[in-house]
Amino acid sequence: MRMKKDNLGLDKVHFRLRDALRLSYEHLKILERTFINIGSITLGIMLFSMIIFSNLLRGDYDGLTLNFESYQSWLIVASIMVSIVSVANVMMITVFERFNEIGTLKCLGALDRHILTMFLIEAAIQGIVGGATGSICGLFIAFISSAVSVGFESVHFSIEALLIFISSISLSIVMSILAALYPAYRAAVLNPVEALRFEF
Amino acid sequence: MSSDFVIELENLSRRFYKGGEVINALDGINLQIGKGEYVSIVGPSGSGKTTLFNMIGGLDKPTEGRVYIDGVDISMLDAYELAWLRCRKIGYIFQNFNLIQVLTALENVALPTVFAGVPRDEGLMKAKKLLISVGLGDRLHHKPMELSAGQQQRVAIARAMINEPEIILADEPTGNLDLKTGIEIIDLLHGLNKSKEVTLVAATHDLKMIKASDRIIWMRDGKIEKIERA
Ligand SMILES: Nc1ncnc2c1ncn2[C@@H]1O[C@H](COP(=O)(O)OP(=O)(O)OP(=O)(O)O)[C@@H](O)[C@H]1O
Ligand SMILES: [Mg+2]
Fold first, then answer.
1. Which residues of chain A does B101 touch, with a Cβ-Cβ cutoff of 8 Å?
2. How far is A29 from chain B (nearest CA, A)?
């Protein structure tokens, strides 16, 4: 009795990666939250990379086998957990603050997964930056402490440092996305009506 | 049954259950709105105007009854199709503008074209033209916070128009504006309604807005109390 769906001329909605990046970037430019997140990631990664870099610089590095002493492993695990919780916490607040935006985006045609993508991109970017700063700080501290303990002449540098950088940043991205997963999911499944009713 | 109507509501009800109590936000609404019509929805606070908009806009699902847009029952649409409907068929205007704070006026207006898959340059060009046409050619790169309330609502109107929707849903578009700015916004919406043949449905308390419309729907307690032709 009624028209078929085709009468609407239905088509797909889009959200190109470039556009998602652009929107994420505009949010990251609001520095307070971004700094807190990057700061927590930096601290978590710093300890991890510092310990490996120390091993490398003192010459007892044998590949990324992660053969830490057990107290070191515990420290690393604990510091990474603390970072994750902290980033998740800040992300959750960010999501609450952006209820209105999320509701609006959905009115304009955003799908759940577009919202998810947007928040995960923000997390990934913070992960990359936090990973980079964290491993640079880690290297710096490892260098100073090795130079002090074994003497400046016996500090070895090798190409493996690059590998440590890359693995630190990878760990950092994984960490950051893991932390953002739940907040981003909450944002994505938000009902637009409820999101827009919500007033501060 | 043919559908010369852009919007048809059939026995539409929306109930909320709150602590054992039932709220009939909408209670058996039947209404047909034709192409290019300008309809005002009037009623006291809590009479169900916003709930009605959410139904027409595909933002919320009815407890009973159906919403047809262009003759298509929108309860048959999946999440992707609903998103497309919101993106291309319907423009939303809110009392509190709901602009994205981190984006400029130009980017806000162009945002719906992103979801519509329009190339970026084309979207920005179109957004610029629209902003000029609503009198904000000199505010393209301002953020919402740097604009007056009336200017923000103009940005929101341009954003609602950019994908050339068939329907504009405006929920108290002049509610946060002073008298003079309110009149300007009404004139703008009315002009768009006439020149672009876009169907305009506006909830309002504003007598000036009501006067400009083709029909006035009076609501009370989730029901249509009376319909007046202006
Ligand atoms: N999510 C909800 N949960 C419970 N009750 C709701 C919800 N949304 C709306 N209602 C109720 O439905 C009724 C209609 O609300 P609605 O927001 O549609 O009114 P309105 O006509 O838009 O009012 P106003 O002029 O104040 O904006 C009210 O009694 C309201 O309390
Ligand atoms: Mg309302």
1. 101
2. 9
Q: Which of B8, B82, B96, B102 to mutate to test the interface with A (most CBs of A within 10 A)?
A: B102
Angle subtended at Cα A96 by Cα A90 and Cα A97, rounded to the nearest 5 degrees: 90
pLDDT in tens, B91-105: 999 999 999 999 999
Query: The pTM is what?
Result: 0.92
Distance CA B57, CA A183 (A): 27
Respond yes or no on whether ipTM tops 0.90. Answer: yes
CA dist B188 and B177 (Å) reads 14
Q: Among residues A57, A87, A59, which one has the least CA distance to residue A172?
A: A87
**A108, closest residue in chain B (CA to CA):** B87
What is the residue-averaged pLDDT of chain B? Answer: 94
pLDDT tens for B147-179 read: 999 999 999 999 999 999 999 999 999 999 999
* Mean per-residue pLDDT of chain A: 89
Q: Is B70 on the interface with A (CB under 8 A)?
A: yes
| C-beta of B59 in contact with ligand 1 (< 6 A) | no
Q: Do B114 and A4 touch (CB under 8 A)?
A: no
Find tokens 């990251």 and name the residue. A28
Give tens-digit pLDDT for B48-57.
999 999 999 9
d(CA B36, CA B5): 10
Counting ligand 1 atoms within 8 A of each CB, the residue from B17, B22, B26, B47 with the most, and so the one to mutate, is: B47
How do the domains of chain A map onto residue ranges? 38-60+73-197
